[in-house]
DNA sequence: TTATATTGCGCAATGA
DNA sequence: CTCATTGCGCAATATA
């Protein structure tokens, strides 16, 4: 993991907010076949803001912050999800262990019952020697 | 793997789904105002490639593909993680249900034992719960 | 060294 | 309208 030092080289945007808009970019197909050129300027305040505009920069900055925030949130959520996986895994193991224990206890009791039943059918009266004592938690 | 159309869309006005009219923007870099790219021109094989270079574009395109691939992978992983969470949740419920069942069974058996013990101490020989079952004679 | 994989970031379209 | 999400490209960096 690493953090970019201070490279603020964003995607070819130009000028700082304060310098005259002098985009060093020029369309290669001025009037060729492409007429899908965006609303360009000199349109009313429809939508596209000029790249050097004050409002434009303000909007961009806000959006950039929103983007950052959103991505941070997304990452945190992902991390939480992974944490939950581990948590659930642990609980899973715990539950399985408990099941194992209960199953064993049940088995023991059933065996006792069976033994008793056999004794009955054999007409035998076993002396209650040492009864299995167990404690429940 | 998705193959993006080899559009040389820079980071400026692009991403117009439906409007393939990509105004090919090219950096005007005559050597006058470019300050964001100090690749120490004139150097031989420096590290920075020129923006109009063939190799540059090739490199960029490859990287773009790699980026797409990586992000796709990341998303898939996140999805898998969420799926795992749900899966584990279900299994946990299942296990808890089983524990509940086993606990109940155990409780019943223990009650039976207790009853039996009481009967013994009362010197009684119960015949279970089946009233009206007497041997006539 | 080169090639690919990750990551942070900005832009723009779109969703809410 | 504003803010949140999302896809995408760029560049720095990490990994092979």
TrEMBL record, chains A, B:
Residues 1-89, 118-137 are annotated as: Disordered. Its main location: nucleus. It comes from the Eukaryota. SMART domains: BRLZ. Residues 47-63 have a biased composition (Basic and acidic residues). The keyword Protein transport does not apply. Keywords: Activator, DNA-binding, Isopeptide bond, Nucleus, Transcription, Transcription regulation, Ubl conjugation. GO terms for molecular function: DNA-binding transcription factor activity, RNA polymerase II-specific; RNA polymerase II cis-regulatory region sequence-specific DNA binding. It is found in: Nucleus. Pfam families: bZIP_2. Residues 1-10, 120-137 have a biased composition (Polar residues). Residues 53-116 form the BZIP domain. One of its GO terms (cellular component) is nucleus. GO terms for biological process: DNA-templated transcription; regulation of transcription by RNA polymerase II. The keyword DNA-binding applies. Belongs to the bZIP family. C/EBP subfamily. This is CCAAT/enhancer-binding protein gamma. It comes from Xenopus laevis. The gene is cebpg.S.
